[in-house]
Design a protein that fits this description.
ABC transporter transmembrane region fold, 12 strands, about 65% helix, about 10% strand
């Protein structure tokens, strides 16, 4: 409950609903507690004296009380719906905003499937808990306490049965709740695992089929799903004890009421109607305890979900802005400068070690090296997707940490390794860097990226609908459109992170030629495994195991950098390397 209480701030706009809802439920509970007394009067006065008029008048009173109770219950229901849905909406919005402040480090740590589960399933559990808080948390204990008070008013001796039965039921509820909490936490973690496997299988379906791995992936999914089912069954077994145990205790109390009540009726100390009223009050306690048992399950789940949501809110981004203000740039400084930069991912050692270089304005920088050499890591430090552990990264004369995110990333057009497009039109995707981009700017970006020809062949042209992830386009088309997206708005720095891997050599060559001719003044970073992609760059950086082992032009590196020459010879003939 403490974890739930921490999220109370998201209910501040629903104080009226939080007040009026429980009040209405309280009034409904009062009316419900009065009905057994009216029933007792009908039996002890109307039926006993054969007074039809009294029976009808008291029956009418019961109908009126029922109608009023229904009205108050509906008001409470509406209040609960408004508050719980509003709470969930605000919480989801706040969590989404907070997640968007995370750097890549935090996103890598939590993982996409877990974030999705927390944004959906966990918040749905919390919404349900808020609704039940308004509808039942006040009503349930009031009915139990009220029924016990009414029993005391009828006969203090018979009320002892209530005072014995109620704490025993409460103890059962506590034990079940205490045993259930760990299982509900485990269920949420298992649900994360199911989400992860489902996401991998849906996004990588073609790869799975290509390697004929359907059976092994099905087995993997079945195993994780079985773990989730076993955990759910375990908690279900514990929860299943609630109803039978509470029924046994409550039915035993009713038997005691009838047994001892009959004795008191025989000696004239109690009336039949009073015994019926006592049985009704015990039944109310029984039904209320069943509701409480369900509340225990709901709030136990909600507590586990609140812990997972609070874990995200407690997680602070490692990459933060020092200012939101624009700062002046040095027009004479290099575009990019690395000064003794070292960086390592969490618990994985250094991915980059003591990197230093300068990239003057308007030049093309090629970055090449073996797999895992740190090429993508290097370019990811420039827009501050991660912060360097040591050293400084200077952009236009200022340390990257001094810029706001919007100003720093506003300098850049970034094409990530994985070509990612979003649902909407091609035009919608191209205008990400500049919302009001003109047709001329879009056309120029399409031509430079070698996208213009295939886009013009489409009947809808730039109004062509793109499915989520760009699945209705080929890999090469997606890559070229992401390059076009980065070029729209003419950013001062272009980062192409192995963004031509799906292009044929002719298209790749045409792309490099267009970039050279049409992006004058832009500083271009080209990460690639292909020598042909980087060999004509003004400066080439050669990385090996996180270290900068070569820097210069193609001709210089062929002579002085053995690793670069080795890479060249693995892709080109010797006479091509030296030319």
């Amino acid at each position: 409950m403490v974890k739930l209480f921490r999220l109370r701030g998201f209910l501040k706009n629903y104080i009226f609903q939080l007040t009026i809802g429980p009040v209405c439920k309280l009034i409904e509970a009062i009316l419900e507690l009065m009905i057994p007394l009216v029933t007792a009067d009908i039996i002890d006065v109307g039926v006993r004296n054969h007074d039809i008029g009294y029976v009808l008048s008291r029956g009418g009173l019961m109908v009126l009380m029922g109608a009023l109770g229904l009205g108050f219950a509906l008001v409470c229901q509406k209040s609960a719906s408004i508050a719980s849905q509003g709470f969930g909406t605000q919480l989801r919005n706040a969590l989404f905003r907070h997640i968007n402040t995370f750097s890549h480090s935090e996103l890598d740590k939590i993982g996409t499937p877990s974030l999705i589960t927390r944004m959906t399933n966990d918040i749905n559990q919390l919404q349900l808990a808020v609704a039940m808080l308004i509808r039942l948390v006040i009503r349930a204990p009031f009915l139990v306490i009220g029924a016990m008070v009414m029993a005391v008013m009828i006969d203090i001796r018979m009320s002892l049965i209530f005072f014995i039965a109620s704490p025993i039921i409460a103890l059962v509820l506590y034990i079940v709740m205490h045993k259930s909490v760990p299982y509900f936490k485990a269920m949420q973690k298992n649900l994360d695992g199911v989400s992860l496997i489902s996401r991998e299988n849906l996004s990588g379906n073609r790869v799975i089929r290509a390697f004929d791995k359907q059976d092994s992936e099905q087995k993997r999914f079945d195993n994780k799903n079985s773990e989730l089912a076993e955990t759910a069954i375990s908690v279900g077994r514990i929860s299943a004890l609630l109803n039978p145990l509470t029924y046994i205790i409550a039915q035993g109390a009713i038997i005691a009421i009838v047994w001892f009540g009959a004795l008191y009726v025989n000696i004239g100390e109690l009336q039949t109607g009073q015994i019926i009223a006592l049985v009704n009050y015990m039944t109310q306690i029984l039904l209320t305890m069943i509701v409480v048992s369900n509340l225990v399950v709901i709030f136990t789940k909600a507590s586990a979900s609140a812990a997972r949501v609070n874990e995200l809110f407690d997680m602070k981004p490692t990459v933060t802005e020092e200012t939101k203000e624009l700062i002046a740039v040095d027009d004479f400084a290099p575009a990019i400068e690395f000064r003794n930069v070292s960086f390592g991912y969490a618990n994985n050692g250094y991915a980059l070690k003591n990197i230093s270089f300068k990239a003057e304005r308007g030049i093309t920088v090629g970055i090449i090296g073996g797999t895992g050499s740190g090429k993508s890591t290097l370019v990811n430090l420039i827009p501050r997707f991660y912060d360097a552990n040591e050293g400084n990264i200077i952009v236009f004369g200022n340390d990257v940490k001094k810029y706001s995110f919007s100003q720093l990333r506003g300098f850049m057009g970034i094409v990530p390794q994985k070509a990612s497009l979003f649902s909407g039109t091609i035009r919608d995707n191209l205008c990400w860097n500049k919302k009001d981009a003109s047709d001329e700017e879009i056309e120029k970006a399409l031509k430079i990226s070698q996208s213009y020809e295939f886009v013009e062949k489409m009947p809808e042209k730039t109004e062509r609908i793109v499915s989520a992830g760009g699945k209705n386009l080929s890999g090469g088309q997606r890559q070229r459109l992401t390059i076009a997206r980065a070029l729209v708005g003419a950013p001062e720095i272009i980062i192409l992170d192995d963004s031509a891997s799906a292009l044929d050599f002719a298209t790749d060559a045409a792309l490099r030629k267009a970039l050279k001719e049409e992006t004058a003044g832009m500083t271009v970073f080209m990460v690639s495994q292909r020598v042909g992609t980087v060999r004509y760059a003004d400066k080439i950086l050669v990385l090996d195991n996180g270290e900068l082992v070569g820097e210069g032009t193609h001709k210089e590196l062929v002579k002085k950098c053995p690793l670069y020459r080795e890479i060249c010879l693995s892709q080109l003939r010797e006479e091509e390397v030296d030319c």
